[in-house]
Amino acid sequence: MVASLGMPALAQDKTKVGFVFVGPVGDGGWTYEHNQGRLALEAEFGDAVETVFVESVPEGPDAERVMTQMALGGADLIFTTSFGYMDQTMNIAAKFPDVKFEHATGFKRADNVSTYSARFYEGRAVQGHIAGSMTKSNIVGYIGSFPIPEVIRGINSAYLHAKKVNPDVEFKIVWAYTWFDPAKEAEAATVLIEQGADVILQHTDSTAPQAAAQAAGNVITFGQASDMAEFGPTPRVSSIIDNWAPYYIARTKAVMDGTWTSTDTWDGIGAGMVGIGEITDAVPAEVKASAEALRDQIAAGDYHPFIGPINKQDGSAWLADGETADDGTLAGMNFYVEGIVGDIPQ
Amino acid sequence: MLMLEKRPNPSRGWTIATPLLAVLLTMLFGGILFAALGKNPFETIRSIFFDPLFSEFAFYYRPQLLIKGAPLVLIAIGLSFGFRAGVWNIGAEGQYIMGALFGAGVGLAFYPMESWIVFPLMVIAGAVGGTLWAMIPGVLKVKFGTNEILVSLMLVYVAEQLLASMALGAMRNPEGMGFPGSRNLAQYPSAANLEIISGSGMHWGVVAAFIAVIFAYITLSRHIFGFQVRLSGLSPRAAAFAGVNPARLVLVCLGISGALAGLAGMFEVAGPAGQVSIDFNVGYGFTAIIVAFLGRLHPVGILLAGGLMALTYIGGEIAQSNLGLPGAAIQLLQGMLLFFLLAVDVLTNYRIRLRIMEQT
């Protein structure tokens, strides 16, 4: 009796979903795509959901306050969309056991904290393949954000697949120590181009490296997190697109249905969480075809980007012939593979 | 026509009234900006300036004001000494980082030993770290006549690199699965800078900020050093005749601001932030420059300005999350505040006169 009386009131309640963003929603990359996911969520459920977000939240005590504010404001589900929000998410989740939290790219979970990430390294494999095939100077520049496993995994995957098609290829890596800082990113790109790089890969979120490559001419780039199609057909020849919308919709649905549980999701090209943006005509047809074949193989699960034999940078064996990397090692990856020059900043 | 006439002395009344006028003008023009963005201006202004203090959830936001405001006040008080004397320390952000690294370094060195001595040692180390970093521009200026603005600013970037290196290397949590960042000091009881009364927001950094305000007030108004500082700012030549040693003044001013910035960093890393991470610093050292000027370089003014700045941050987040206001609009509002303050400053030093042009 009580339950049946309570139900209609509950059903009328909007499900409130909060998003904590590390960059501005107009960054054109990482945060932009998370925000696209948020908008898709609104489009999917209409009046049944209400979304709120705060952008450019520093990864420290400020993030805790923003999350608390959302929880106090009645949020049922909160997505915290950067690695650096990990401890803050755990702290606030402990204070609000009835609110569900979803932390992107982290590894700490609780009864009301799930984690989710995408296998961007699958996209990096395709990127590395094109980069290795296209470079004439045999120097590929790579703008790293922070030396965390997520980024190192991307460098390794891109390098392995560039090396496979071009044994002479060399990676030059610059660490920007930021996720979003157009000035720093542009500077990093310029430095790499001056050092002879004719391909620029980036793990930072703005379009500044694309603009720098365009200004330099004869340099190709890849859209990061978002398609960045406005820089095509060159310098941007393809991209890795994050597609969070299906995940956000599914998880919100689970909260509405009361079926939400703490999970660890790590989806790739196959599940559609990682998309490969259109490969432009600047890429020779045969390279385009082989890149698309690689993409399809990964999507079908026929090929794993980290398949042995692979040695670590110091020459010690990591994966034996035919062996594939386990998710645990990938999640905590803190070493370069053999052939990459330079040290991971310590 | 309107004429500006220089006052013989700055008006006392306007000195107090202009900050209030600046806040009102910011509310007015901020409201117009928000209206242009399609938001209800009254609701937005209420969210920013009143909700953190008086809304349903104020019990949560009021302590947050202390947490956000304390480092700003602490750093700004230190800066105000130098700014009054014409010593421009722009690198408080770097000194803040170094204080945090020194403090956290001491705390981590003792881990997991539990003793009451750990925290006091960390406090001292934090002050020492900030002071040493501020001494670099100080000594270079005194010995070689370099520009302290440039040197202290450049050292911010050096400190940031050092911070990254520490978070990734020497201070990395050995149990962190290879991820960057130190152990969480907030979870190490002997080193944790926790709230003194739970839920009040009152951690040791807040206490230190209040003490700094009182200390600065007394020094500036009652002590010979305060007199020297003020005199040097007004007239360096007169100060020299009065027996002020300019080199010592530079070093002491930079030392005080470095020490207080270092303390702020140390209290932050051991408490609200908890760990040394690559992006530990969020710009308190730079925002404190605004706070110092907003507070007219006066200790009580700085206290109020720090509170106001904290209010716009926290209220700004509320407005973002509840009303969907873009983050950049909040930054614009904070910029407006400084702009109007400087603009209405003219009333303090000048009198506006209406004059009728006489025909000849």
Characterize the structure shown.
- The complex is a heterodimer of chains A (346) and B (360).
- By secondary structure, chain A is α/β, with parallel strands linked by helices.
- Chain A has 2 domains: 2-118 and 243-267, Rossmann fold; 120-241 and 273-331, Response regulator (Rossmann fold, 3-Layer(aba) Sandwich), CATH 3.40.50.
- Helix content of chain A is 40%, strand content 20%.
- Chain B has one domain: ABC transporter involved in vitamin B12 uptake, BtuC, CATH 1.10.3470.
- Chain B is 70% helix and 3% strand.
- Chain B has 15 helices and 2 strands.
- In chain B, strands 1-2 form a two-stranded antiparallel sheet.
- Chain B is globular.
- The two termini of chain B are 16 Å apart.
- The chains are: A alpha/beta (346), B mainly alpha (360).
- The interface between A and B is large, with 38 and 36 residues.
Overview in brief:
The complex is a heterodimer of chains A (346) and B (360). By secondary structure, chain A is α/β, with parallel strands linked by helices.
**Cα distance spanning the termini of chain A:** 62 Å
Largest interface: A-B, 38 and 36 residues
Number of distinct helices of chain B: 15
Which runs of chain B of at least 5 residues are low in confidence (pLDDT < 50)? Answer: none
Strand adjacency order, main sheet of chain B: 1-2
Low-confidence stretches of chain A: 1-12
- Name of the top-level CATH class of chain B: Mainly Alpha
The major pleated sheet of chain B works out as: 2 strands, antiparallel
Question: What labels would you give this structure?
Answer:
heterodimer, A: 346 residues, alpha/beta, Rossmann fold, six-stranded parallel sheet, six-stranded mixed sheet, disordered N terminus, B: 360 residues, mainly alpha, ABC transporter involved in vitamin B12 uptake, BtuC, two-stranded antiparallel ribbon, 15 helices, 70% helix
